[in-house]
Specification:
- It catalyses: dUMP + (6R)-5,10-methylene-5,6,7,8-tetrahydrofolate = 7,8-dihydrofolate + dTMP.
- InterPro entries: Thymidate_synth/dCMP_Mease, Thymidate_synth/dCMP_Mease_dom, Thymidate_synth/dCMP_Mease_sf, Thymidylate_synthase, Thymidylate_synthase_AS.
- Keywords: Cytoplasm, Methyltransferase, Nucleotide biosynthesis, Transferase.
- Helices cover about 30% and strands about 25% of the residues.
- With about 280 residues, it is α+β, with helices and mostly antiparallel strands.
- α2 packs across α8 (about 185-205).
Length: about 280
Amino acid sequence: MKQYLALCQRIVDEGVWVENERTGKRCLTVINADLNYDVANNQFPLITTRKSFWKAAIAEMLGYIRGYDNAADFRALGTKTWDMNANDNAAWQANPHRKGEDDMGRVYGVQGRSWQKPDGSTIDQLRKIIDNLSKGIDDRGEILTFYNPGEFDMGCLRPCMHTHTFSLLGDTLHLTSYQRSCDVPLGLNFNQIQVFALLAIVAQITGHKPGQAYHKIVNAHIYEDQLELMRDVQLKREPFPSPQLKINPDIKSLEDLETWVTMDDFEVIGYHHHDPIKYPFSV
């Protein structure tokens, strides 16, 4: 929580205005931010200076794990985060690759579970990682990446948090996650939750202790229509202590995650928070 607020304050104090062509808005921007989360001691990085809808963040990550490419599937899991990008993005609506309502194209989890090779076959990146880690193998290439420039035109949005690298030291698993762009008021807490939960879940299903999650952000920004709420409301509030995340111990495999797991298998303990803040979202 302190890291999050420190980054918000840094953007307010040091940020430079940058025009964003995609949204037509200005962003107050800083370059390079490094955050880390203590998964080993279950210090869940959930924002307390406003209400955070953490279940939607985990549901979105579960959809990536399953390789979903349709906003309706994400809604069924409990998150509407892809509704606007799938259906209200004018450029995507006019894209010949779009299959119809709710189609997201070849984004995020599709790349992670079905990266297409030139010969037409596919690579399941996540399966390879889980298989290796379950055997105690770290080949220094346990990398899950969603960033495929050759297929950017086949999806509704380039990935923001684009690569996850797992590292095994003894029986402890660590994670380093890379993000090219971050809407800090709206997106960052989702991203923090997902980095933390991804390490916790993968450690659990591969039989390792979770260690540290390192979250590296290149472009961290606050949109011009979000600035007043951040500066004059959220940054004025005192944070509460960090809660903890409880994951159903019966989740023991990738197949479990692909089939029966729901948001009922996750619980946050000790979450105290201030009132919600309705930040504008830019498509």
